[in-house]
Protein kinase
Amino acid sequence: MEEAGDSTFPNWPELRRLFTYDELVGKVLQGRYEVVRRLGAGGMGVVFLARHVHLDKLFALKIISARYLDEPEIGRRFLLEAQAASKIDHPNVVGITDFGPPEAGPTFFVMEYLEGEDLARTLAREGPLAWPRALHIVTQIARALVAAHQRGVVHRDIKPQNCLRVGRDGDPDFIKVLDFGLAKILSATHKSTWTVGGSPGYIAPEIYRGGRTDHRVDIFALGVVLHTLLLGRLPAQSPGDVELPPHAPVLHTADLPPPLRAIIDRATAEDPERRYPSADALLAALTEARATISSPSGHALKDMPERPRPARRRGLLLAASLGGALAVAIAVASTREASGDAAQRASEPAGARMDTSEAREAPADTVAGIPEAPAGSAKDPAVASSSGESPAAPATSAPLAAGPSAATRPPEPATSAATPAALEDMSEATLPVPPASGTDTPRPAKPLAPFDPAAAKAQLERRAADVRACKADSSFRTMTTTVRLAGTVSVSPRGKATVTLPPGYDVSPCLARLVAGTRFRPSLDGGEFAFTFLL
Ligand SMILES: Nc1ncnc2c1ncn2[C@@H]1O[C@H](COP(=O)(O)OP(=O)(O)OP(=O)(O)O)[C@@H](O)[C@H]1O
């Protein structure tokens, strides 16, 4: 607070007491909200944790800052904005449930209490985020904006600090957007330049210019947020508002996948006319980018960190990236447990798949309307396979031998028992050899041999590029040097593998998936081998 250092202020101790509202702790507001403790303070108000004495439920109370107590117009607008925000009713928007009376005491409103971490703190702990994760987060914020703009509410202060990561349904990156509409109160009531409302770096140029503004200020800010999440700093080399960990990598715009660069460029265009015309359009662009960008290892969204990938979505993503008959075969094979429309959607062109009405209505725990499985769900193929319960592992040990590359390999028939894990592993040269064309006679099965650790090791070594890409979701992501992790890979007789690392090192979800998804040669006995993962 800028007044804090002003020693000439005549009644500073009294004012300070008022600013912090500390005397409220332990009091019961309106006969129902018992103030438990202060959670923090921002430009407009002070936030307290409170317990509803009748419901015995926790809420967050935002009380208008004491410096505005003598400005009834600000108090009135504070309530009006909270009232408008309460109507947004979207899973990615903090729920506003009640208001304090404007006639007695300081104005306040009541929100759902959220336990989580804002994105600025996440960046400070972890450094720039891998693009699939950043995209997942920004897509949710875009959904929140779609819902808000539909109800005529413009946020005006979208920034990492106003987006809380709360764990939900196994998703640690479920986002709740706070503070809809509050930033404009000051600009509407205080005409001086320092009260433009919003946060430097995220404020659209037209706000600075004092001209007409609309919902496109949020599109600008969300473009800046995407840039900040991916690179750890604001665009145009501006100093960031986010502290990064000391060893965070220095990344440049050129390091970003081109579709994300294009989205950032368009969303943050100086001229609002050149930005996406609506949050819907931005959401559609994000969804399109998600479906089409390949990860560094060349697999579409293969390495989505910390997110379970249900069979249905995996099938769709692969189908979108591979196209043609192969795509249809994959979609059919991987949607055995899903409803029948997935395969049909997979065969549609990418642009037709995401219709904006679906985007608008999609609940926040879905990706393009496709429900996510909770973490650890038995339907998550990665989990199933790593626990040895591969849902459709070949019942017979068909001989596995080096086959053609993914580009030249003929598609498997749609009715094949290929597992999602096997489909993911299409780059591996270990798929069953299809019968030679013109021959209907299946090859006789070779007898199983004892486990060959050297051959298994060589097989994993061929996936060096995929292993390196797993750095993005590991705790070593911020290290610029190559990390060597000595692990042990155990392979079952059926060729399913798990990896263990020395005590104190966690196997990242990406690495676990990669090893579990590699189809090692079935053997008589199974076995293990030492492997150094180079990340
Ligand atoms: N619903 C909520 N549940 C839990 N914590 C909350 C909730 N709303 C706000 N907070 C926390 O209260 C603190 C103050 O929030 P507030 O929104 O007032 O400030 P800010 O966003 O940091 O600043 P500004 O309002 O100037 O943008 C922050 O740490 C915020 O995470």
Notes: Residues 39-45, 47, 60, 94, 111, 113-114, 118, 157, 161-162, 178-179 surround adenosine-5'-triphosphate (CB under 6 Å). The radius of gyration is 27 Å. Residues 1-12, 189-197, 296-442 have pLDDT under 50 and may be disordered. The chain has 19 helices and 14 strands.
